[in-house]
Amino acid sequence: MTTKPALAAVDDDAAPLSNQQLRELYTLMAAVRHLDTSAVAWQRQGIIPGYAPELGQEAAQVGSGYAVDRSRDFVFPTYREMGVARAMGLDMVGYMSTHKATWHGGMYNPVESRFAPIQAVVAGSVLHAVGWAHGQTLAAPDEGTGVAMTYFGDGASSQGDVHEAMNFAAVMKAPVVFFIQNNGWAISVPTERQVAGGSVAARAAGYGIPALQVDGNDVVAVYEATRSAFAHCRNGNGPVVIEAMTYRRGPHSTADDPGRYRTLEEERLDAGEDPLERFKQRLLADGVADEAFFADAQRKAEEEAEVIRMGIQDLGPRPGAEMFNLVFQEPTPALQSQATAWREESEHV
Amino acid sequence: MSETITEMPPVIPAAAGIQQLSMQQALNRALDEVLAQNPKTVIFGEDCGRLGGVFRITDGLQAKHGEDRVFDTPLAESGILGMSVGLAMAGFHPIPEVQFDGFAYPAINQIVCQIARMNYRSRGTLPMPITLRVPSFGGIRAPEHHGESLEALFAHVPGLKVVSPSNPHDAYHLLKYAATRPDPVIFMEPKSRYWQKGPVDLTPAAADTTAPDGGNLTGARVAREGRHLTLVAWGAMVSRCLQVAELAAEDGIDIEVLDLRWLKPIDAEALARSVAKTRRAVVVHEAPLTSGLGAEVAQLITQGCFDTLKAPVERVTGFDVPYPSGDLEDEYIPNIDRILFGIQRVLEYRRG
Amino acid sequence: MAEISFPLPDLGEGLIEATVLDWLVEPGQQVERNQPIVELETSKSALELPSPQAGKVVRIHGAPGETINVGAPLIVFEVPDDTAGIVGTVPKDEAPKRRVRLSAVLDED
Questions:
Q1: Subunit contact A328:B119, Cβ cutoff 8 A
Q2: The Lipoyl-binding domain covers which part of the protein (chain C) (predicted)?
Q3: What's the angle, vertex CA B99, arms to CA B93 and CA B101, rounded to 5?
Q4: Residue A269 belongs to a domain
């Protein structure tokens, strides 16, 4: 039975990526890979209290984030989208500050970055994307509309909000790309014990939403799928589901121990090809880049991570007054009096 | 027995700008005006559009303002509230409706974890100007989950504000005020008071005031002045307390009724002002007793008036039971006798 | 005031239409619940329809001899809009009843 609706539109200027763009994608992936492994090290060094690695998901994250038009689109991440953030050009000290425990949503400006505050509730922001996207339809129904892209995983797909979001989006024809990174694991639970039917993308058919299941370790395939999905949404055809099949090579977080639920041999067999190495071999084979380029990309990645490390180490705690000042736009008298009491009794100045 | 059982005089001067409206009409009119004044306002929820809402609060608004501004959603409260977050992020002022109090529960995650926190999480860059209308409280012999009182739950959540009108005039003005605020407000409509008519002064707040609410919408309201004891109430319990005050007057007890209106923030100054005068207080609410908002009110009164209080603040409330079926509703909701007993306990109290 | 439309019900296990024989009420008329409002003929029988509710008749659909589909509007009533909605009943504002009397010696110190 083939019930999967096809995309109603593809990008008009869907030219193949230029060599320059391919090299840029690699540079981004290398930067993300190095920052990710650095962040794990920083946690071991006591610089940050915790981190959720995305090792192995660089192609899925960079490829999709690279397709975002920051002049009009908006991205709704979870807590494991560092690669998307980097591909979109976020202030990475501001991004990593959430893992420094500086501020829950991160210190970057979400409005200017077109990247919603980091979301700790699994599937928490999927509906936000639908609302934001419907807002674009209401504001400018006939122009090439802004598209919302919401990220979530195979674990989050079990949440009821994902069903509500897909149903709402399809009913309202909201320009939303539901971007699932199926990385095989929700902490300790594998996809086969998480996703009935085995595929999140397959569920899209029930909503009449076109779905693309892509090799999430192939950055070019991810980019092209995302670009097509954006074109479909932008032209008023409603939402698209993309399921990028990838693998969480690292632990769920720096506090996790995968050895309790999977063996190294299973990891080796299931992880498939390393997306970074795979892309490198392709660029080499196609003559797009040479070893000098890869060495340069690695050097840049290391320099960048070093700047970010210094940036987050320089982050002091936020002024305690922000606890009170940022709750409301119009603070309540009770909260103001609590702030006064705090200042008098607890502020160590 | 007194004939006057409502809080307003039965004869209303036909002054300009004053109309006799039901709360349903007053709320409908307020929404109509808010839609007209702010093109970024959108109203949506289950059956809000074509039907006009199950209580007809949005009656006619879709026809007048269009299907983009007033629309039906699929039947999913988390979806409605989650969508509100995204619309607010996109620059809209959503006025979602949860059809009945008890159906806010499926949306609690979005209300508590998202709506209440997004301004904070985003460091003030993504305000949540969301006015969530919730037909609330009991008294209409409705099915299960149609008679709940969620004010303590909402008031406990940092980042939310909570208000409940008790009469058509306040409903009109408080909704217009709430629907123009930059913060999320839970607007609890006493569904048992939707259809009783009362005078509504439609005159806009004076333009020369510096207060955003015209100076009279952010606090509590003295619904009846008295000398001997303060009854504190909100929503549908205000009219019941006014009835009780009439009865108490027959016994020579002069009762002040304070309509709290805002359940977060609570107008602590108005509580202190009233009880400093009367030196006795009973707080009345429909919600269950334990950890109900009455405890918060009692503490604020004690804090402000301990020196002069004649007796501990009494609470007359619903019980710590699931809201009962219609046949037992009158046993659950504070009735006149239970409120009178509460008053008597306070009057009899002697220190030492 | 609100209007409530009453659609032609299926009058006999799967019928799809009925023909109006004679209207027994007219617009503007106040009717009571169960008051006969119209005579209809179906492919099975002729029958008299009792009013489903009290209210003022606003409109009637179908002149004698005309056919009405099941589910199509038959008659529209005007009812007071003080209905509680789809569920519940509006509580009546009754004069308060009491059993408890207050007694107190108020020391006005």
A1: yes
A2: 1-78
A3: 100
A4: yes
Active site residue B145: no
The pLDDT-based confidence of B212 (bands split at 50, 70, 90) is: low
Q: Locate the chain A residue with the closest alpha carbon to B126.
A: A111
Section C12-41 average pLDDT: 88
Output the CA–CA distances (angstroms, integers) from residue A292 to A269, A279, A286, A298, in the order listed. Answer: 31, 15, 15, 10
- Residues B62, B123 within the same domain: yes
Distance of CA A154 to the CA centre of its chain: 14
Environment class of residue A12 by beta-carbon count within 10 Å: exposed (0-12), middle (13-18) or buried (19+)? Answer: exposed
pLDDT in tens, A208-257: 999 999 999 999 999 999 999 999 999 999 999 999 999 999 999 988 89
Chain C residues in contact with B3 (beta carbon < 8 A):
95
pTM for the model: 0.86
Same domain, B230 and B148: no
Q: What is the CATH number of the domain that holds B254?
A: 3.40.50.920
Is the CB of residue B121 less than 8 Å away from at least one CB of chain A? yes
Is the Cβ pair A328, B159 closer than 8 Å?
yes
Counting residues of chain B whose pLDDT is more than 90, the rounded percentage is: 86
Angle A52-A57-A60 (CA atoms, 0-180°, nearest 5)? Answer: 130
Distance from CA of C107 to the nearest CA of B (A): 10
Domain span at residue A91? 19-318
Residue ranges of the domains in chain C? 2-79
Q: Name chain C contacts of B6, Cβ cutoff 8 Å.
A: 93
Which of A337, A313, A314, A311 has the alpha carbon at shortest distance from A324?
A337
Q: Could you tell me if B35 and B163 lie in one domain?
A: yes
Mean of per-residue pLDDT scores for chain C: 84
Domain with B253 in it: 221-348
Question: ipTM higher than 0.85?
Answer: yes
Q: Is A175 on the interface with B (CB under 8 A)?
A: no
Q: Does A77 touch chain B (CB under 8 A)?
A: no
Answer whether B75 touches C (CB < 8 Å).
no
For residue B337, the chain C residues in CB contact (below 8 A) are 98-100
> Is the residue at A2 inside a domain?
no
Cβ–Cβ of C89/B140 closer than 8 Å? yes
Number of domains, chain A:
1
CATH number of C2-79: 2.40.50.100
